Structure formats: C-alpha cells, structure tokens
Amino acid sequence: AWGNYGAPSMASNHTQWLLTEIFSDHDWVKAYVAKNQALITESFALVVQTLRKYQVDYARAAGSLFIWFNLEHLLQEPTEAAELQLWQRIYDETGILLTSPVGQGSLRRGWYRMVYSCVPYADLTVAMARLETFLQGEA
Q: Which pTM value belongs to this model?
C-alpha cells in the first residue's frame, strides 16, 4: 500500500521509524486495541441510549466509528433543503456537528451520521445531553 501512496504524501523517516518501534511492541498494541474497543463501545452505548430514549431509529452496526440515525420525522418536507435546514438548526441550537446527509448515499431523507469515536467520553456526555434537550423540544 505504501508503494502506491506517492512521495509527496510520505511520512517522514523519523515518523516511519517511530511507528515501527511502536507497532513492534505487540503487547502494547494488543492492550491499545482492547482499550480503544472498550472506549468506542462505551461511546456507542451512550449514543444509542439517547436515541432509544427518544425512539429515534438508527442503523445497527458492529465495530463502527459512527452511527447513522433517522430524523426524518423532524423534516418539514422530504427534500435536501429541509435536511440541510435541520442539520444547521441542530448545530446552531446544540453545537453538535453532524455529518451533512447530502451526498451520503441514503435512499431515504433524514438520515444523519454522528462520529462519536474521536470525542472524549465526557464531551460526548455533554453532547448527548444537548441532543436530548433538542429532541425534547421537538416532541
């Protein structure tokens, strides 16, 4: 894979050496992967708990770094413009930046993607509380 990557995008020699050293420590890698799997699972569970509480449909996933969920019932009309309007409103009112549904390939309107894997759990807890407040206002 690295051979096809291209010289302008290559990692520096120091970075390559450092990664080789890190990945050569198999015990560390094993522990790192296990810890990250546990953290991602915990984050996923928090997001799903919030969505279930408000009966928001979501796509079941295993081993994912994000979740797809359906806010079709909050759209004023089934259009791309309405999706973007809701996306912007959620951001403006909660500070939660979802992935815009436009261009994501969903066959139905109203499906949004939330990436939870790169957010510290404490921050995700705040985000879910804000999403709850938003969803409560829509009920």
A: 0.81
